[in-house]
Amino acid sequence: MTTADTKKKNKPNVSELFGKIFKRQIFIPIAAVLVLLLFNLIVDPGFFSIELTRNSAGNPVLSGNLITILNNGSELAILVLGMTLVTAASGGQDISVGATIAIAGSIILRIVCGTDAKADSASFGIVLVAFLVACVASMAFGAFNGALVSIFKIQPMVATLILFTAGRSIAAWINNNQLPTVSDPSFGYIGGFIPGIPIPTPFIITVICIVLMALLLKFTNLGLYSQAVGINESSSKLNGINPIFIKFLTFVILGLCTAVCGLIKVSRVSGITYSVIAQDIEMDAILAVALGGNALGGGKFNMAASIIGAYIIQILTTTLYAYKIESTALSAYKAIVVIVLVIVSAPAVRNKTKAFFAKLKAKAAAERKEVA
Amino acid sequence: MKKRILAILMVAVVMMLGITACKSGDKKEDDGLIKVGIINNDPNESGYRTANDRSMQEMFTEANGYKASYAYSLKNDEQIAAAQKFIQDEVDYLLLSAAGTSGWDTVLKDAKAAGIKVILFDRTIDADPSLYEASIVSDMAKEGETAVNWLKGQALKEYKIIHLQGVMGSAAQIGRSGALDATAKELGWTIVKQQTAEWSAEKAQQIVQSVIDSKQSFNVIYAENDDMAKGAVAALDAAGISHGVGKDVIIMGFDCNKWALEELLAKNWNYDGQCNPFQATYIHDIIQKLQKGETITEKTIILDEKGFDAATITQADVDNYGI
Q1: Number of domains chain B contains
Q2: Relative to the CA of B187, which of A268, A292, B23, B308 has its CA 20 to 30 Å away?
Q3: Interface check A110 vs B, CB under 8 A
Q4: pLDDT at B23
Q5: CATH number of the domain that B156 lies in?
Q6: Residues of B in contact with A330 (CB under 8 A)
Q7: Is B198 touching A (CB cutoff 8 A)?
Q8: How much is the pLDDT for A61?
């Protein structure tokens, strides 16, 4: 009798608990990460091994698939910080980020290499100056996009289409259409490893960016305001928020994120190829925001879920590279996984599951009443 | 009312000016220069294209007896529109590196009817050969064969190859992959990994990294362009694997970028196959022959392409062939 009683008592509790977990937006992205990692664990247990090895310069570095994921997912994770804000405030996406990364990278190399498109030495000072100039330029391009969207009320995708089309040509023009390369190994530290620190530098930069963004959201009203603007522009205006400024600001912040990505990208290979650098990253960034369960039409957002969304894409890429998959079929595999993930994390599906668990709960409550 | 009349008058004046401007533009200057219209792909596309465009710009100058106009696009329809414009401008020669292989018949027939001679460079098209005078192309399959023969000549004890492919379906990818696939099958070479890095250094780096992480051994990296070879080398450096002449892993690239040939000179890489962008001299020769009234017997002209070995490359090669 007592056991049956507790059983009946426990049952609604369990479903309540699950209901609560499912309700959380971040649940689906975390579950997706776990499923992908579990798949790798089953197929190849060695996937998770991490080793401390030495690179060619004799410095200790960590290596392994997990490190590769954290390392190569950096640019996307940094980019979604800005993309999530833009999506929330403007209800649209910036598709020019890949092109702006090319511009930022080109500016950095232009300053480091000068006019001969070649640099044998790159001091810390000049790289810093180059990076700061790139930041200003990228923010200016962000401001351009932001002005089109906020002041002229152009659809974000259409407004950013301009730079999407012209950006890579601008990047090539900055360097006089040459392909500059830097042969100083210290330039590669930013996209590789700093001697003595075995953790990949891009990951460290990502952590710094995430912390900065968390502080920004915690200590300012930016998060609240951009959600308010995204949900209802006119009512937020009535409440004293300036929607034009908020939208404009989110694009400028995204511009800053692209400059950081540009620095990491050009450092990874100590050079640039205008048509190839950060190719399709805008689509991956939008996808990451969607995988995080955020509504692409603007409004409420969950930054942590977006960041996890970015790493999901990288886990998927690394997983696909780790197995013998035909080159021609690579994109098809990726597409299948992405379709499943996007459908599962769509707000509509989430509401349905929420309703399902609410029904379960009601049923359990009714049962409890009957017993009583 | 007054305003409207004024506006109409102004429009009329502008139109008149336009017409006269056109007329003065139409006046044919007979200065003995050969008029060429050059349609090329966007020079930003790659280092190869930049070098290709530079070779054109250097050759077709007034000093060499040419009056050249250029049109750039990566889109076939825009290129066709540019070709129609050149036909209207009555150029003597139309030089064409087509973005796509089809859709050119009509416009080339128009060119023929207008007495304009067409020379294709760099890329072939699906059109009747009677519509053009000559076609100057790279033989990508031959580039691949030259590279694979070089690799065969290294006589390694065993071949364990990472094969980094370009964008699937591009002519360069098909030619360069085909040669390796055939020989690997014939001689029983192991392909440890065959994956497309889509010409991107970063993707190549990730692919090679994934092979290293899965602890598979390999001793050759066959990258279908220099950028991908560079990305692969970055992954090897991070893992402390030695590469180059007399080292653990052989590095092979294509396109002969200047920086890549310098890597060869420093013995960090082993081989680089040329994809010759210097086509202007070939075109110049053909135009000179046609001007003299000679006929071109061989329609398809295959460019001379070399493969450089780190053991024999010299600084002069870097200066002459680097793009």
Answers
A1: 2
A2: B308
A3: no
A4: 45
A5: 3.40.50.2300
A6: 195-196
A7: yes
A8: 93
Work out how many CB contacts closer than 8 A connect A with B. Answer: 112
A271 contact B CB<8A: yes
Whether residues B213 and A265 touch (CB distance < 8 A) is answered with no
Inter-chain CB proximity A181 and B259 less than 8 Å: yes
Q: Which pLDDT tens digit goes with each residue over B55-64?
A: 999 999 999 9
**Which domain does B63 fall in, by range?**
31-138+277-292
State which residues of chain A have pLDDT below 50: 1-9
The shortest CB-CB distance from A65 to any of B43, B47, B213 is to B213
Q: What's A312's DSSP letter?
A: H
> Which residues of chain B make contact with A58, given a CB cutoff of 8 A?
240
**Residue span of the structural domain in which A138 resides:** 63-324
Count how many domains chain A has: 1
**A197: which chain B residues are within 8 Å (Cβ-Cβ)?**
none
Same domain? B147 vs B269: yes
Residue A88 belongs to domain with CATH number: 1.10.3470
Tokens of B66: 């040419």
**Do B190 and B312 reside in the same domain of the chain?**
yes
One domain, residues B120 and B175: no
Under an 8 A CB cutoff, do A322 and B210 touch? yes
Give the ipTM.
0.86
Does any domain span residue A25? Answer: no
In this structure, are B147 and B106 located in the same domain? no
In a domain, B13, yes or no: no
Tell me the two tokens of residue A11: 């049952």
Chain A positions in Cβ-Cβ contact with residue B257 (cut-off 8 Å): 179
On whether both B107 and B201 belong to a single domain, the answer is no
Q: How confident is the model at residue A116, as a pLDDT? A: 81
Q: Say what the pLDDT of residue A275 is.
A: 85
